[in-house]
Amino acid sequence: MDFQEFAEQFQQRTAKRMLDFEAALAKAQKQMEEQVRQQERAREMNIKKPPAMYPKGTLRGGRVQGVLRREDPSQAS
Question: How far apart (Å, rounded) are the C-alpha atoms in residues 18 and 15?
Fold first, then answer.
């Protein structure tokens, strides 16, 4: 294989990769646009998610935190 043949094959591979990349980019853009439309529809319909309920003494990450209770100084024994 001479340099000219190598250069032509390289150019063909590069062009194909660019077309594949552009197709993937277009697909991702369409998906993002659809997500935006869905969010706008949900906002228009005023759909709200219920607030998440977390047990007392826990954080969202699941790490348990001690619950500190302050004693009323007037009731201290």
Answer: 5
d(CA 54, CA 61): 10
Place of tokens 């969202």: 60
Instruction: Read off the tokens for 10.
Output: 């390289």
Distances, alpha carbon 22 to alpha carbons 6, 10, 13, 68, in Å: 24, 18, 14, 56
Measured CA distances, 48 to 42, 57, 62 (Å): 8, 26, 24
Structure confidence by residue, pLDDT tens digits, 65-76: 454 544 555 665
pTM beyond cutoff 0.70: no
